[in-house]
Write a structure and sequence with these properties.
single chain, alpha/beta, 2 domains, 4-stranded parallel β-sheet
Length: 387
């Protein structure tokens, strides 16, 4: 269906005498005669969350339009049509007063999420609103991904410290990929995720500029430190020139983990209420592979979620590269490598698997290998027995 999200696009659509059938008009204030819909063919048009006068509402419905009302009283827009930016999520934040975070949209939405049930089933209208919101986020995310044919994701723990050597190494790998035109995606949170989003934004800056930014961040190494978010905003302020013309980079966080704020360096945040949708989507969108930095249970889950997709070719019928960064960590501390290698050997995709301590080797792997089609015959009951 064709979608119209601005008053100007609706006016242009009507001026061209195009019917509104199979068209979705979202979130527009149509009161006060700004747009004359009385003579427009509106059968099979859909109006989502638009503001309408009573007479116009009756007219549209009587002529075959489907009208869904606004859902007021929420700290978020249920009929959302765009991804979040850091500026929107952190609106009102003052780096000189960390407690101003509590009044930002990000914090207020999380407080509302907890108040209305959190991860438990929410009341019906709240559950409905959350699902509408997440659907809008998915559509906006797909629009962004259509502009970026090569996506590499970085997975890793939120506990990676900003003053740890791996933080800078992850940032440098992400910078290299972003400079080559890759869209760097992460889970949008702290730790290894922040490092990758930061590096992507500094892709065109000198190496010493990125190093200086990491040193500034390192005064508050963990997201639980009071100065964690202020330090990020100081980096943003100090390097406004770099960030003004920086590559896009994606974060896919969730209000499910709203106790840890999203990082301030992803230019686009696809922030979901449903963590299951977020996890599945984040692994699936990485068309050209995933780099797994050291992490805990969440990262291990993502490793085997990605392995499952590769094993059965469930995403575009392809096998995408998996690079585990940190040999000792993934072979001994959390020894997922033997199981992962055994799975890959069974389905013949070990050529898309790497474990290494060498950032250069990881970069060569994801930059040159790419995805490949998985040779697997499809089967269905009906095709086998009934046709």
């Amino acid at each position: 269906m064709h979608e119209l999200h601005t008053l100007s696009s609706l006016k242009a659509h009507l001026a061209a005498d195009r019917p509104l059938a199979d068209t979705v008009i979202t979130g527009l204030d149509l009161r006060g005669g700004l747009v004359d819909l009385r003579r427009a063919p509106v059968a099979d048009a859909v109006f989502l969350g638009c503001q309408l006068e009573a007479e116009a509402l009756v007219d549209l419905v009587s002529r075959g339009a489907l009208v869904f009302p606004r859902l007021d009283g929420l700290p978020y827009e249920a009929w959302r049509t765009t991804l979040y930016s850091p500026e929107e999520l952190f609106q009102g934040f003052d780096a000189n007063d960390p407690c101003t975070y509590c009044a930002t949209p990000d914090a207020r939405i999380y407080a509302h999420f907890k108040k209305t049930g959190g991860a438990d089933e929410a009341p019906m209208l709240e559950a409905f609103a959350r699902r509408l919101h997440d659907h809008g986020i998915t559509e906006a995310l797909e629009a962004l991904l259509r502009q970026h044919p090569r996506v590499v994701a970085f997975m890793g723990g939120h506990a990676m410290r900003r003053d740890a050597p791996d933080f800078l190494r992850v940032a440098q790998m992400a910078a290299h990929l972003a400079k080559d035109g890759v869209l760097v995606a992460t889970g949008g949170g702290p730790g290894a995720m922040e490092a990758a989003n930061l590096g992507a934004r500094f892709a065109h800056a000198p190496a010493e500029t990125l190093e200086a930014a990491v040193r500034t961040l390192a005064v508050a190494p963990l997201y639980s430190d009071r100065e964690w978010l202020p330090a990020a905003f100081r980096v943003r302020e100090a390097h406004r020139g770099v960030l003004a013309d920086a590559p896009a980079t994606l974060g896919v966080p969730t209000f499910f983990y709203g106790h840890e704020p999203p990082n301030a360096f992803a230019s686009h945040h696809a922030k979901y209420f449903a963590n299951c949708t977020r996890e599945e989507g984040l692994v699936s969108l990485a068309t050209h592979g995933i780099i797994f930095a050291p992490g805990a249970a969440g990262t291990v889950q993502e490793i085997f979620q990605d392995a499952c997709q590769n094993h059965y070719g469930t995403v575009r019928g392809e096998v995408a590269p998996m690079a585990l960064f940190g040999e000792r960590y993934w072979r001994e501390e959390l020894p997922v490598w033997p199981v992962l290698e055994a799975l890959a050997r069974r389905a013949k995709w070990t050529d898309r698997l790497l474990v290494s301590d060498d950032p250069a080797a990881v970069l060569r792997f994801v930059s040159t290998v790419g995805p490949r089609t998985l040779s697997r015959a499809s089967w269905s009951f009906c095709d086998a027995f009934c046709r």
